Amino acid sequence: MTVIADTKTDMIGKALGLLVLLGDEPRGASASELSKLARLPFSTTYRLLGSLTRDGFVDYDPAGRLYRLGLRVFQLGQQVSNHHGFAGTAMPILQRVTDVTGEATILSVRDGDRHLTVSKVDGPRTFRVTSDPGHLGLLHTTSVGKVLVAFAPPEDRHRLVEELELTALTASSITDRDAFRGEIARVRELGYAVMDEENEVGMRAVSVPVMNAQGTAFASLAIAAPIFQLTVEELLAHLPLLQSAAAELAAKLPHR
């Protein structure tokens, strides 16, 4: 009986793993590609994809033989967003910030060793910031991520500062451990973080923590803009607005 239960749990984990992989493939992926990425036998992958497609979690395009995330995943994501207040509560606050700045406003939370974008309002300009809701990004290369590390509970902060993989995404990314320690200490002292082409060439952002009653960040709020639109100084001029919005979010959002 235990063996059967363990097998079922293992298959559920493999199916969920395929959904995560498809989340990183917006154009879709074939069964053979997913099989290689998941390191699963093709027969297992194909069978799991069939079950996920039947239940609406995955869509299949027979013309290209590609699988994509289905509307059932979107539905569940919207339910989670509504439950946490990211849609009804957070979006009007983000919209007000964007109305003043003319730039994108982004709300993120920490998901393990990554940050997860949960809400975003684009600015009115044609140039879009690419960190859409559902995007998982690195902590050490982003302003939202640095804030989430700097204002994490002490034990989490220490682990992340000492053990987080410091992958380089651009020539400006922090890859030195001492430099990262210094950056996180600076963010804690200043109360905000800046990203200046560290995550994406041509982009800047400033972020502040959304704090709970214990003084730790359960979310991070950012303004992001192309470098040709705002200097770092011009971004920092919006700090009072950003901090006011973060305080409003802290008062209205569930602290989960």
Describe the protein.
Residues 1-6 have low confidence and may be disordered. 34% of the residues are buried. The protein is α+β, with helices and mostly antiparallel strands. A hairpin with a 5-residue loop joins β7 (203-211) and β8 (217-226). Helices cover 47% and strands 20% of the residues. The radius of gyration is 20 Å and the shape is globular.
Descriptive labels:
256 residues; alpha+beta; 8 strands
Strand order of the largest sheet: 5-4-3-8-7-6
User: What's the Cα radius of gyration?
Assistant: 20 Å
For the sheet with most strands, the description reads: 6 strands, antiparallel
State the share of residues found in helices, binned by percent. 40-55%
Oligomer: single chain
The stretches of 5 or more residues where confidence is low (pLDDT under 50) are 1-6
- What does the average pLDDT come to? 87
Q: How many strand segments? A: 8
Strand content: 15-25%
Structural class: alpha+beta
| N-to-C SSE string, H for helix and E for strand | HHHEEHHEEEHHHEEEHH
How many H/I helical runs?
A: 10
Between the first and last Cα atoms, what is the distance in angstroms? 36 Å
What is the overall shape? globular
Show the helix and strand layout.
Layout: H1 2-23, H2 31-38, H3 42-54, E1 58-61, E2 66-69, H4 71-84, H5 90-101, E3 104-111, E4 114-121, E5 136-138, H6 143-150, H7 154-163, H8 177-190, E6 193-196, E7 203-211, E8 217-226, H9 232-236, H10 239-252
Antiparallel strand pairs: 1-2, 3-4, 3-8, 4-5, 6-7, 7-8
Helix pairs in contact: 1-3, 2-3, 5-10, 6-8
